[in-house]
Structure formats: structure tokens, C-alpha cells
Amino acid sequence: MGSLIETQAQPAQEGYLWTRLDELVNWGRKNSLWPMPLGLSCCGIEMMAMIGPKFDLARFGAEAARFSPRQADLMIVAGTLTWKMAEAARTIYDQMPDPKWVIAMGVCSSTGGMYDSYSVVQGIDMILPVDVYVPGCPPRPDAVIDAILKLQRKIERERPFAQLLSGDNFDEGKGSETFVRAPNQGVPTTRSHERLAPGSQVPTEGA
Amino acid sequence: MSTTAERVQPALAGLAVQSSTSREGTLTLEVPAAAAWETIRRLKETAGFDTNTFVTAVDRFPAEPRFEVVWQFLSSANAERVRVRARIGGTDPRVRTITDLFPGAAYSERECWDMFGIRFDGHAGLKRLLMPQAYEHFPLRKDFPHQGIEPDRLYREWDRVRRERPVNRDLPHAPQES
Amino acid sequence: MATTTKVFEYNRGSLEGDDPLHGELMELNMGPQHPATHGVLRLRVMLDGETMREVEPDVGYLHRGKEKTCESLGWRKFFVHTDRLDYVQPLMNNVSYALALEKLAGLEVPERGQIIRVLLMELSRIGAHLIYLGTTGIDLGAVTMFFFTFKEREALYTLLDAYTGHRMNNTYVRIGGVYADVEDEVGREIGKWLEHFLTAVDEFESMLSGNRIWYDRNRDIGVISKELALAWSLNGPNLRGSGFEFDLRKQTPYSGYERYKFDVAVGTRGDCYDRYLVRVEELRQSARICQQALELLKQTKGGEFLADDRRFVLPPKDKVRSSMEELIHQFKIVTDMALPVGEAYFGIESSKGELGFYVVSDGTSHPVRCHIRAPGLMNVQAIPVLMKDRLYSDTVSIIGSLDFVMGEVDR
Asked: Which residue among A182, B45, C276, C310 is buried most deeply as judged by most CB within 10 Å?
């Protein structure tokens, strides 16, 4: 997730020069976000519209859509992520070099959307760390541009040199864990639309 | 469609077929499962239905026989449709494939296997189409819950293997230990 | 040599004995994430040099369980899901589902409702073919096509936004008609845009049809004969490109299509270039149908656009708030709209082929089965047939010209 450190915890210890360098690095990073569009379904069309002529994403420096994760730093997950695809999505995220950010575009990637079914990941934050969520089905391209602008504000708050100076290695462990929550957060719910045939036996989960 | 019935009846002479008409007027033929392939072959070769629209199944749980396989065909010459239905039982449901007559039915039959667990004898390459190959359940059966049974199991397996794999952090020219 | 064969364990069988250059097939994975696969399609390609010996598509990376969802949600609430099937032509899917349900219900859509549906369907077809042009163009290197077609699509989206309230995934069709009427102003704007659009189509053709590179990359690539296309269940432009004039709008007219004058574009050779020409001509014919529909709308001004059957169609809101009977109807329809017992299938001519819904009802508000006959699945099935023994660079032309959308392939 870039090099975001809790900024409310303590003021910058490094001094004026390093914070100005932080600002310079952040300015460069935020204005040249190269998206890796993981266009999975309908939101992919609106993402293409965003890169298209009317809602020009090139104004924000983010037009260089690189489909290879090695060359990109912003992964826009646009569309429904299924469990069959989750492996590939996680691999792509791992292949992206630091600093990297993730935008969950649309409700399907934010929370699973209207698909509470047996094959859909209920939110990509079950398997990836997410920076900005964009609701909508699909969100208008302006909404996604707004998300990129919010991400730019978020990047402005990062402190890349603090970590460098503090001597910590960039911890690969952070962000490579899996955040799998149990489906429905482990809370058993009865759905009014659940229609099981009478007399059917359902094996219990995690038994 | 009376004209469809007129053309189809002579082609199906000798087969135990019950015809009816569905709500939108398509001739529907109810056949025993063992006679389905022969019926379809006659429809193709004699009655001129040259393209397969879909192959699917309906789970009639808890009624027995449990599954009902449905085939639909279209005659491109005169845009007529015909539907063939056959009931098969729930334990080890099998029916003969029609991919030798209609190669375009291959994926539909794989989907029936994937979603219902119905085997198609003679299908070259009957494996899952939409769910991962190692998936264990048949989702469209009526006793399978909508939200699934441990939908993330395969992913967690993959993730565990991924995290336990040792990562080599040495630079290529680093001195090798022992 | 011995160690080499051990490393490449996925040796799928040798071609000619010990020849080191041709002894093994290389498996190349065009993974689910790929710019040119038009969605999450995985192709396992067995290459002999640059020639593809075997191609195996792997679908299901966007399987969202729609058929199961229909069984859980019920007839009415599934309309929203039908948009997301072939998401480049959402209204077409809505109409297809509504037509199947209306067959079960025995409903007739009033004339103005049918005209509006035809208008929406043809606008969706235009949108879908523009996506085909744009994405296939950009995949084959004609990056300008992407921007030009998306500019037209943006104009289309603005019009749909003005009418339906949403740019895409509109869900504007109901059982018995459409949600609300087309206003005069919106109709006029659509008419103006259609005139401009016809000149835009000429511009697209001038950029691509005579273009040497486009021609070389599409001519005689991915040839399929009419008999093979029928055997592999292909419909739509894929079948018409092979020289067979089959259009469900003409053969089994629905929603009043017999009133409109339009031609059916048919190719000759069954290759990618003919399929491209068929789709471009369909753009023009769709614009022609839309213009006729707008004329008819002017003539039927003030007509009913929703059927009047209170078992399936919501009553107008002002009556709901004042009359007890309408309130009861509203309540019953929203909570528990049941369709009569029976089964029905209705296939329409979508931009990719025959899109149909096979619905089986047992008289309750939830289906026994709702199967979606997606043309995209048949198009993906034909990929190995078209790609056999061709060069690897033809994958992009063939995938583009088969034109499938993974939302409906995987459902």
C-alpha cells in the first residue's frame, strides 16, 4: 500500500529537507499513476469510457494503462471477482512492484454487489488490501476519476523517506497476507430469498 | 405449430414419444431417456432440424425421476423450433451425448455436468465448464444453497501453499551457504 | 537435451519424432487477464512455432451464478440481473427476458410499448457493435477506432441517461412494456444524433474497410462455412458472415419487427472481414430502424406503453395511494408475483446471435428453472475450430470477430 504510515500518530521527525523530498516523491507518484485495469465485467466498460475521449483520464497523468502488472502501480479492479478468478487477481497484485495502490471500482468489487452467490468473492478486500472504494453499478466515469483524485490526496499524505530513514526493510509481509474473512463475516443469516427444496440436507460449513 | 407436428410425426414413427405444445407454441416431445438420442437423430436427419439451440436440465427435486434433460433445436430453413425432454433418475444420472450429431452442444453438456452432475456418455472431454475443476459440488441442484458451501475453500488452499512456499531473497551473486 | 525435456514437463505430445525444432508443442497461456481477450477468458494455446495446433478456451472466470440467483430471487427481481449478462447491450437482455415471461403470462404488450422496445433494442445493438469496432480496432492496432467509437457511445449514453436515468445497465423494461414513456425532447435528440451517426459510420468505414493493414489481418482469417457454423450453433453475424441469411427479426418477428423496413446484411466468405462488414452494415440498418421507430412514436403519441394486467404490471403510483384495490395489487406484485404453470422459450436476435431465456414455472413467484441461452458461449466454443492451424497473431482477429462478452458466456 505504498508507504503509508499512520500520520496522526506522530509528527515528522525527519526534518524539513526530508519532508520536502517526501512531497516531491509523492507529487511525482500521484501525478503519474499508471493503472492496471483489471476489467472483469460491466465496470470495465465504464473504465474504458473513463480512458476514452469524454472523461479523459489522461488529464491526471493516468492514461498509460499497462496491462502488465510489472509496469503498473495502480490496480483498478473493475467488475465482479469470482473465486475462480481470485487466484489470478491475487497473483497479479503480488506481481506489481511497490509502491502500489488498489481501487475497488463498483459494488461488485467493494462488497460483492448484488451477487451473494456461491461463486463470487464478497468484496476484493477479502483477498487484497484496498485503498479507495467506489460505489455504483457501474459508477459513472466521473465517480472513478473522483476516486483517483481521492487516491492522489491519500498519496500526498505518505512519507516514503520516513521508512527509508528509519532503516526498516520494506516489509514484504505487509500486504502479502490474505485477509480472508469468512463469508458474511461469520454471522449466520437467514435470507428471505433462500429457497432450498424441502428435505434437502446442507452440509455445515467448516465442520 | 401444427405444421411442425405434421413434419415431425412421420419422422418419429415407431418411437414412444408424447407430444405437447409449450406456452409459446413450440412442439415439445417427451421421450424416455434411452430413446432421446435416436429421436434427436431422426429430427436432424429426417425432419431437418440442423442446429442445436441449447441443452440444459431441470432439477425437479424431490420428485423422482429427479432430473429432466431438455434439448432444443432449430430448423434454419423454416425457423421452426422443437424441444425434446427426458426424465432421468437422481442416482448416477446419465444420458447419451449428442455431440456426434451436433458438435455445438459440447459446452452445454459440460455445463450440465458442472451444474447438475449429469454425465453425458460419449462426450470427449466432459469436465467442468464454469466452476474450477477441483470444485466438489453441483451448484444448480435444488439442495445446494444459494450462497454456496465454503466457496473460498479452493482459494484458501492455493493461498496457504503460496505463503508456505519459501522465497529466495538472495541476490544471484550472493555467496551460497554450505 | 535430456534435461531440457524434463524441465518442460507439459510436453503434450510430439509431432515428428526427434526433430528438436518441432518435437514438442509449447503451451502458451493467454491468461484470464489479457488486454485482447475481451474479458476474462483464458486460452491455452498449443503452439508449434507460430502455428496453433490446439486451442482450449477456459471459461467461468466470471460465473456469478445467475441462473441460481433467478431461482432465489424470483421473476420480478431478476430483471436487474439480466442487464449484466451481455453488459454492452443491457436493454436487449431485458427485452429478451420480458418476452419469455410474457409468453408464460400470456400478455400482449401494447403498440407503443413495442415501438419503444424496438427503439431501445436497436440502440443497444448500435452500442454493442460500436464496442466490437472499438475493441477489435484497438487490439489490431487501430487505436483511433477506440476513441472514435467511444465518442459515439458517449453520445448514445447521454441519450440513454436522459431517457432511462442511467448510462448503462438501465433495467428499463418491465413485464408488459417499459417503465416510462419517451418524451418528445428525448425523441428529437435521438433523431438528431442518428443523422450524425450515419455520417460517423461512413467515417469508420473510410478508416478501416479499405485499409491495407485491416484487410490483410482480416481477409481469409477465421473462415467458417455455413454448414459448420450451423453445426457449432453459431447465429447472428457469425452465421450471416458465412453467407446464410438468417435473422430472427425477419424469420420469427417479435415486438412488431414486421412493421419496419430493413435489410439483413449477409457476407460471402465467412471470414473475419466479412463479419466486420456485416456488423458495420447492421449499424446502418439499426439506425434506419430507430428512425422509423421514432416516426411511429410520433404517430402513437399518448398511447399505452404498459399492459394493463394487474397480476403482473404495477399500477400507476397515484392510484396506489388513493385506491385500495391498486394498493393490494401493488403489494402482491412486489412481494409475490407468480407466473402461471408451464414453460416457455423465447429467442431474440441480439448483437451476438440468438439470445433466449428458457423459463419453467410451477405457478409460484420463483422459477423452477431459468436457463439463459447465451450466444457468446457458442461463439467461444467455436474458437478452437476457427483457430486451428493458424498463426498465433490471428488469435486477436478471430476473438474480435467472434465478438463475445464474458458476462453472458459465464453468466
From this structure: C276
